[in-house]
Amino acid sequence: MGRIKFTFYALLFLVFGCNFGYALSDNEMLLPPANDDCAGATPLTVNPTEICASGTTATFAQATASALGATCTAQNGADVWYEFTATSTAHTIALSNFSGTPQPIVIVLYEGDCTGLTMLSCSQNNVLNASGLNIGDTYKVKIYFNTTSPSLTNTFLVCVTTPPPPSNNNQTECLITTVNYDFELPNLTWSTYPTFVNHNVVQGWRTTASDQTMEFWQEPNYENVPAYSGDQFIELNANVVSGVYQDYDTPQPTVFTYGFAHRGRQGTDTCQLLAGPPGGTLTVVATVSTGNTAWSYNTGTYTVPAGQTVTRFMLQSVSSVGGASVGNFLDAISFTANNGIISPNPFYMDCGELVASLEAAGTGTWSAHNSNPSTVTFSDPTSNNVDVSGFSVQGSYYFDWTTEYCTSTIEVSYTGPYPLDPVVTDITYCQGQTAVPIDIPVDQPGYTMLYYLNGTPYSNPTPDTSVVGSVTYYVIQESDAGCQTPAYPLVVTVNPGQDPVTDFTLPAALCTSDGTVTPTTGTDFTTGGTFSAPVEVVIDPNTGEIDLFASTPGTYDITYSVEEDIANCLVAGSSTVSFTINAAPVLMPVTPLELCDDATNDGFAEFDLAPAIAEALNNQTGYTVTIHLSQTDAEANLNSQSQPLFTNIIAGGQPIYMRVVEDGTTTDCYTIEEIQLFVHPLPTIPSPITNYVQCDQTDPDANDGIEEF
User: Fold this and answer.
1) Distance (Å, whole) CA 567 – CA 697
2) Residue 312: Cβ within 10 Å count
3) What is the DSSP letter of 321?
4) Do the beta carbons of residue 155 and residue 63 sit within 8 Å?
5) 509-511 and 573-582: which strand pairing?
6) N or C: the chain end with fewer CB closer than 10 Å?
């Protein structure tokens, strides 16, 4: 604002009748600010980072509406002009530190001079993200009040900052990001109670509330609700049920990724995320209900339909436990999209890599710069994922991905063919073993395999096996064009001789009737050795299995031996275990016991088993004999029966089993012999018996009573 002091006389006032706002004495006349029109645009400092270290205070006293420069709204109550020279392809113009009555403000960006301005973009949320700028060009900025009757006492800070490039070093003009996603602006004076702010002084966000009020909370606060991130968050319903939104330019189909933190205040509150064209129908993208004990973070994607050139994302209250003006806390709201190149930039092709696989987002076309070292081929110039091939000359190649509203460029560094990585296998020797020269085959004639040990080059080195330890050679394959692979380590290890593990165990004693037994080997047992035993023991030399039945009873030493194996770094070693084979009693076959039934003729009789036992023992002494009804009971030594007198329990006889154990042994070697018992029934005479009568007729004359029957 310019203040120029003039001295006038009353006569001059009467002649011209002009109202300049002065009295008869010395007076001050208020003139429009110097940057009231395009020609007087105030230069803005371009901050090299996102931090606004240097800004300019805007004043509107006596400002007027300019005729120059198109606007994006119908109303222009007054405007001021600025200009800046781009130092990057993207800059951010932001307004902050507002004073005076909150009013809707519009920022418009132009290219060209004041005689021919072309509007590039505009913003109605106090932040304009400018992209696609030419470094070194000067751009004009018009800031105006979007109202017919503005208050011109307002002031605010205008700042131009430089956003950093994405992590992959691609251009920022194809990126779409959320302004003030964390509600950290405006930077409010701390209060334990919420602060009600007109949305016209908020960066990025606007509300649908009729009173244009947004409710900001800070931490700590009287309800002890922490921010999800940062220090500030908002309550969706300030005084009335409402929504908050941001608009994004989407001149082509775009895939947005969204995320927002939500929390209830006095219970479980519900809000909806909607998307669609401003002024049109917004569709529900997501509905979220969250209690008041913790934040929920909700994510998803939204695809902009074709023809929706501007997309509005709005979070709107559905219900809240506390009523229309209470509930639905929000924080960390982000809507992001990338319609540019996603691949790392520069994109380095390894030696020998012939195809560059590049990726971009959005809908666009790939093209190559004419200055590239050689022509290339695109697998599909309109595909988001394209394979670029046909490189023939080493150097840097540049490719553009051009969408409807932005172009991003990637540098591809082609280094030429390179040999395959050498096939490196570590080598192990035993101390004193004869080594052979290292000779890894090359991939093609003319290639060379290079070996390095402690930085010294060698040609087919022969390792030294006299010293125990490891040395590392590094192997590089070099093509005939000098393209090298990375250095790959080849470790040569010389191991000392190791004692074999020969420990094994056997039961202290077993019976010949146990069949077979196999040694139990120790942990990390060294295989490949030999089991041995005296000739009386039948043993498998490889597995150590002993045939007990075929072996002679007695106590023997069983030995496992491993011979020296220098190739496997083994010294000779052995282990011996003492082992006893006890004989089971040798019994003679028993003649079946047979009895005639008594007068009852019921099939049961009392047998004297003593003869059968004596027959089986065959005069052997020192044995304990038990009688059992079944083979199973005999083997388990269960349910022994009375003896030597035994009455069969199955009519007609049955088998019983004699278990014989040698007295005084700890292994209880036993033999089981079967005894068959038979009870024969008594013969029966038919009753009654018919008398046999015959005449004395052999010698009738004698009549001696003697006749042949």
Assistant:
1) 115
2) 20
3) T
4) no
5) parallel
6) C
Query: What is the length of the chain?
Result: 709
Q: Which amino acid is at 503?
A: D
Residues 6 or more apart in contact with residue 588 via CB below 8 angstroms = 615, 616, 617, 618
SS3 615: helix
Q: What does the pLDDT look like over 14-63, one tens digit per residue?
A: 333 333 333 334 445 678 999 999 999 999 999 999 999 999 999 999 99
Q: Which residues of 443-470 are buried (b: 16+ CB within 10 A; e: fewer)?
A: eeeebebbbbeeeeeeeebebebeeeee
- pLDDT recorded at residue 565: 84
| CA distance from start to end of the chain | 171
The C-alpha atoms of residue 452 and residue 656 are separated, in whole angstroms, by 85
Strands 488-495 and 427-430: parallel
Interatomic CA distance for residues 230 and 663, integer angstroms:
90
Q: How far apart are CA 434 and CA 466, in angstroms?
A: 9
Beta-bridge partner residues of 472: 491
Q: Which residues contact 637 (CB under 8 A, 6 or more apart)?
A: 626, 628, 659, 670
Mean pLDDT score, 248-265 = 93
Higher pLDDT, 12 or 225: 225
Residues 682/597, Cβ–Cβ less than 8 Å: yes
Q: What backbone torsions phi and psi does residue 30 show, to the nearest 5 degrees? A: -85, 120
- Tell how strand 232-235 and strand 213-218 pair up: antiparallel
Q: What angle do CA 152, 154, 160 make, to 5 degrees?
A: 120
Using left for φ > 0, alpha for ψ between -120 and 50, and beta otherwise, residue 636 falls in alpha
Kind of pairing, strands 469-478 and 407-414?
unpaired
Q: What is the pLDDT of residue 17?
A: 34
d(CA 55, CA 165): 22
Distances (CA, A) of 480 to 6, 458, 477, 568: 87, 19, 10, 40
Contact 656, 645 (CB under 8 A): no
Q: How many CB atoms lie within 10 A of CB 164?
A: 10
Tally of helices (H runs) and strands (E runs) in the chain: 3, 50
CB 648 within 8 A of CB 604: yes
pTM comes to 0.56
Q: What is the pLDDT of residue 352?
A: 80
Give residue 663's pLDDT: 82
Closest CA to 607 of 598, 599, 616, 618: 598
Tell me how far apart the alpha carbons of residues 330 and 334 are, in angstroms, rounded to a whole number: 11
**Which tokens belong to 208?**
């649908």
Higher pLDDT, 647 or 567: 647
